[in-house]
From TrEMBL:
Taxon lineage: Bacteria, Bacillati, Cyanobacteriota, Cyanophyceae, Oscillatoriophycideae
MF terms in GO: hydrolase activity
InterPro entries: HAD-like_sf, HAD_sf, PGP-like_dom2, S-2-haloacid_dehalogenase
Keywords recorded for this protein, A-Z: Hydrolase
Source domain of life: Bacteria
Protein name: Haloacid dehalogenase, type II
Amino acid sequence: MKNTVVFDIIGTCFSLDKPRAKLVEFGAPTYALDLWFAQTLRDAFALSHAGGYKPLKQVLEAELPRTMQMLGVDLATTQLASIIESFAELDLQPEALEAFKILNDAGWRLVALTNGSENSTRQLLERANAIDYFDSIFSCDAVEKTKPHLDVYNLVKPNTAIATWMVATHAWDIAGAARAGLKTAFINQQEKGYLAIYPQPEVIALDLVTAASKIVEIA
């Protein structure tokens, strides 16, 4: 059985620049994407923690008008729909394919683990010509709980082997994976610092290529 690297998808492998640009195009401030996405995750986590569940896209759709109202930005229904649709056109991070190749060439198995849907993740990877690097795609929809709930990380554990790593750009995702018993690599390009209250990752890297190289080196 092969060692495995589990990748977060939204924000880690794929950039959120397209929905950010759409928001700015429609008159929202540059930080609108960060606020909207953070509130979406917060409310998805809260619903999951309280024993409920809604797919990520539904939470994004519910959160967007409220975020725009908070920012004083009045958008038409068609504009709101256009912003949501941009999530189907996310671009792969520039260094991602090289990182995937480094791991594949070293004999590692790649798995996607996402709060998004399995279908949308597959479409993103296919669109980016990256699908062939991945052995499996797992979505929190399967257990109707969001990351960082341990049940989500347990989806990959029966399918993993000797060494299992989680790579993510979100500190909360790294913390959840560590609590589930995975080794972790934190990409600090977005959040910069890592929280001291969380379990510390084995690797902290500026980008995916550096993280991939360090994982191979440590193993």
